[in-house]
Design brief:
- The chain is of the alpha/beta class and 385 residues long.
- The chain folds into two domains: 196 residues, 3-Layer(aba) Sandwich (Rossmann fold); 183 residues, Rossmann fold.
- Helix content is 38%, strand content 19%.
- It contains 14 helices and 16 strands.
- Strand 9, helix 6 and strand 10 form a beta-alpha-beta unit.
- The longest helix is centred in the N-terminal third of the chain and has 13 residues.
- It starts with a strand and ends with a helix.
């Protein structure tokens, strides 16, 4: 059997955040002797383009192939995609489409409908109230009404959490929605460089001779939805009594970096809060395995793959209650807090007095989110008739 996975962007375009690594993991875990995975995407990479072979399927692994269409107008349109995707769809039995507000989605949906294919769409948070209200709200709602509402009975929606299911159902109450979480490659996170606090901070900030007490780590694209400004303000309060603590924030700029850097300077946090830019997979593993705590203040997450990755490394988490991780506290993996700086600052203090079992946290991640588990759920719900 052959599945065509269609996404407007793909590995290694990590500037688009967690969905890139999650989609790669899904594709790799599904590819088998019984299922060939063909990925059709573009060479989009933020305001740049990926340096990859174009307009031909390239075998990445056994039964896993990728074709990058050249995007003539960056983040706007690819004539090559328009001309080639019909054939990609025709050769596949199942069509899996990612995102919502992209020309690649509309073209793929219409071509799949015309060819009577089984259609699965993963909106990646596009139905959230935040996304629908953030920029061009009216156009987004018209887009949904024109391009998706008439065909909702022909679409199976893939939600990555109960929150995303709720968001989809609020727009299409009678639609078919299936929840399957994103996954992680648990074993790959168990092998990382071991650094002490001083070594870790020096590696990513070049700061020496610091008597570091605690390292808090956060990661995500630098976009208002991630609320890194709340974390920075919370840390300003926290270090008044914890002067030797450090906050490291990793992530590429998505329109918010300049503002965050200005805030760090304004609050005189240049020696306590560091924006270290985008990191590769090995650096992510190093940071997650060697920090003391992971924290995230997102206004919303449809899932939050980096949270699962932090659990995979056995780290206690301080997390916004706007995310779908409401069992974090009951599983004794961290603290859920209101999404404001005072609440996060209090949680930074509180978590230091709590005891956590790193191995139990890791096991929760392995049992619930390893790709060996998630891929079977995906196959059961979407592939096996």
């Amino acid at each position: 059997m052959r599945i065509c996975l269609i996404s407007s962007s793909f590995y290694p375009a990590f500037i688009y955040g967690g969905p890139i690594s999650a989609t790669l993991g899904l594709a790799k875990s599904l590819a088998s002797d019984d299922l060939q995975v063909f990925i059709s995407t573009t060479n989009a990479n933020g305001n740049d383009r990926l340096n990859v072979p174009l307009n031909q399927f390239i075998q990445k692994e056994k039964n896993l192939f990728i074709k990058y269409y050249h995007e003539e107008f960056i983040n706007r349109f690819s004539l090559a995609f328009l001309c080639g995707i019909w054939s990609d769809i025709k050769k596949s039995k199942i069509i899996y489409i990612q995102y919502l507000f992209s020309y690649t989605v509309i073209i793929s949906l219409f071509f799949s409908l015309l060819q009577s294919k089984k259609i699965i769409i993963c909106p990646r948070g596009s139905f959230s109230s935040y996304t629908l209200s953030y920029r061009r709200s009216f156009i987004k709602r018209i887009w949904i009404s024109l391009f998706f509402a008439p065909f909702q009975k022909s679409i199976i929606w893939h939600a990555s959490s109960y929150l995303e299911e709720k968001d989809i159902k609020s727009t299409f109450p009678n639609s078919k929605v299936v929840i399957v979480n994103d996954g992680i490659d648990f074993n790959s996170f168990q092998y990382a460089s071991t650094l002490n606090r001083d070594e870790l901070v020096y590696k990513y900030t070049l700061q020496k001779n610091k008597k570091i007490s605690d390292i808090f780590f956060s990661m995500g694209r630098l976009h208002p939805v991630k609320s890194f400004d709340i974390l920075i303000k919370a840390f300003y309060i926290y270090i008044k009594k914890n002067k030797n603590a450090i906050l490291l924030i990793a992530g590429g700029d998505d329109g918010h970096e300049k503002e965050l850097k200005s805030l760090v300077i304004k609050l005189n946090l240049e020696n306590s809060v560091f924006l270290i830019g985008p990191v590769n997979f090995d650096d992510k593993k190093t940071l997650l395995n060697n920090c003391d705590y992971f924290t995230l203040a997102s206004k919303f997450e449809s899932f939050g793959i980096v949270i699962a990755e932090a659990l995979c490394c056995g780290k206690p988490i301080i997390l916004s209650n706007k995310t779908p991780w409401n069992d974090l506290e009951s599983n004794k993996c961290g603290i859920l807090v209101n999404n404001d700086s005072n609440s996060f600052s209090s949680a930074f203090n509180e978590i230091k007095s709590m005891k956590f079992d790193s191995e139990k946290i890791k096991n929760i991640a392995k049992v619930n989110f390893d790709w060996t588990v998630i891929s079977q759920k995906f196959l059961k719900n979407f592939i096996i008739d």
